[in-house]
Write a structure and sequence with these properties.
Chain lengths: 209, 234
């Protein structure tokens, strides 16, 4: 009740923070896919790169998010770009790992048929491996997005805005309503993003019917 | 001899062990050579050596007289129709897309691709209207095999042919090869299939070619390994 009351009085601010939040997640996800997809392909093609690249993405994942945000401040300063960099680093692991798993999971007989027919490396990747791995890759993107929505709330700590602003303000003033005002829409946002990506997966990805 | 495919002294080693050891044979136009052997005998490896999915340790593969090792590998493979045991149809492509893949990669105009697909499917006894839009998992094993054969034949241009519409796929296949004038290497461990399809049978054991001859010679041979295979068919 008090939450609705709060939203009633701060609707403009809520929408602004929500838009900031979605912006952080959207930009970082796009960048993470642009970096992670080629990295995943590289790792699948050159086993020697597997340990260093997957290892690095793993290590990043183990750094607590607040610490990572803090560590990046000296590099990028305070604000959205630092937050986006941190979010990209977090999103890389599921995307790289699932791209790798998706591509190496393609039936060897299918891959050999493609090679045997005289497909070039690029053709094999574009026409066979990526389409067949798309389901696994998209699942990785889904995980990345859901995690990003959560981690992005920490971005408020370094002045990047987003729904975390309410949460930090609420923690500082010991105000449950304010914490909920940030946490609830963040959770709903995560569910919504997951649902939409699930829908996209069903529409875009080939599967036996 | 004007062999389409000529294999001389083919050898392939992996970690010091010879998987294929001094294998030689030639296949002429319209001929089907069946590589027969148990699993691990080196028959699939031999096939991969021919289209350079593997590089021979020693020996020469000539296709129409040209050394395969010196040719552009993509061009080489596109000149060799390739059907493997697992067939390897692309599960995310329809039958028509599978068969028309190579022509599409070669940038044929769409109408010509569609025409060729129709032609090829009819040739292997599948109705293009009915099967063209289906996916491999919606087909029976035999139908998938036909599609695999149609796809392997897709690249080579040939004229209009009488459609093959009935009878056993294997028999159709043999006449098909004869009419197309293609040289064919077929891998199997099933001696009945070998006897039905082959103009000549090459029996492999532990990477070595131990018998090479016509199906009739194979049936008549007193070689113990051949007898073993013949007994398994009885």
């Amino acid at each position: 009740m008090r939450l609705l009351d709060f939203y009633g009085r701060h609707l403009g601010e809520l929408l602004f923070l929500l838009r900031q939040h979605v912006g952080l997640v959207a930009i970082s996800t796009v960048v993470a896919v642009l970096i992670g997809l080629p990295l995943g392909v590289l790792v699948a093609r050159r086993p020697a790169w597997q340990k260093p690249i997957l290892g690095m993405t793993n290590v990043v994942q183990t750094v607590p998010s607040l610490a990572l945000f803090g560590l990046l401040i000296p590099v990028f300063g305070i604000g959205a770009w630092t937050a986006i960099t941190a979010l990209v680093l977090y999103a890389l692991l599921p995307i790289v790992r699932n791209t790798y798993a998706g591509i190496t999971g393609v039936d060897p007989a299918v891959r050999e048929a493609g090679r045997g027919m005289g497909m070039t490396d690029g053709e094999l990747l574009r026409l066979v491996e990526l389409p067949l791995a798309a389901g696994v890759i998209l699942a990785g993107v889904r995980v990345a997005v859901v995690v990003s929505v959560g981690v992005a709330t920490i971005a408020a700590a370094i002045g990047a805005g987003g729904l975390g602003v309410y949460i930090f303000r609420g923690v500082a003033t010991v105000d449950d309503t304010l914490i909920l005002a940030g946490a609830l829409p963040a959770a709903l946002l995560a569910l919504l993003a997951d649902g939409l990506l699930g829908l996209a997966e069903r529409r875009l990805v080939w599967r036996p019917r | 001899m004007n062999a389409v495919l000529d294999v001389r002294g083919l050898r392939y080693e992996l970690q010091g062990r010879a998987l294929v050891d001094d294998v030689s044979f030639a296949v002429g136009a319209g001929e089907t050579l069946v590589l027969l052997g148990r699993s691990g005998s080196g028959k699939s490896t031999t096939l991969r050596l021919i289209n350079r999915l593997l590089m021979p340790t020693a020996g020469v593969v000539r296709i129409n007289g040209d050394d395969a090792a010196t040719q552009d590998v993509t061009r080489l493979r596109r000149r060799i129709g390739y059907v493997i045991q697992e067939i390897g149809l692309f599960p995310h492509f329809t039958v028509a897309e599978n068969v028309g893949l190579l022509p599409r990669l070669e940038r044929w105009p769409a109408t010509r691709v569609a025409e060729r697909v129709r032609e090829l499917l009819t040739l292997v006894g599948l109705d293009a209207t009915m099967f063209g839009s289906r996916y491999p998992h919606q087909l029976s094993g035999g139908q998938r095999q036909r599609v695999g054969v149609a796809r392997a034949l897709a690249d080579e241009p040939f004229g209009a042919l009488d459609p093959v519409t009935r009878g056993e796929m294997q028999r159709e296949f043999r006449t098909l090869v004869g009419r197309l004038g293609k040289a064919l290497v077929f891998v199997t461990h099933d001696v009945r299939e070998a006897l039905l399809l082959a103009t000549r049978i090459a029996l492999l054991e532990s990477g070595r070619l131990i018998f090479l001859g016509t199906p009739d010679e194979f049936r008549a041979s007193a070689m113990p390994q051949v007898r073993q295979f013949m007994d398994s068919a009885a």
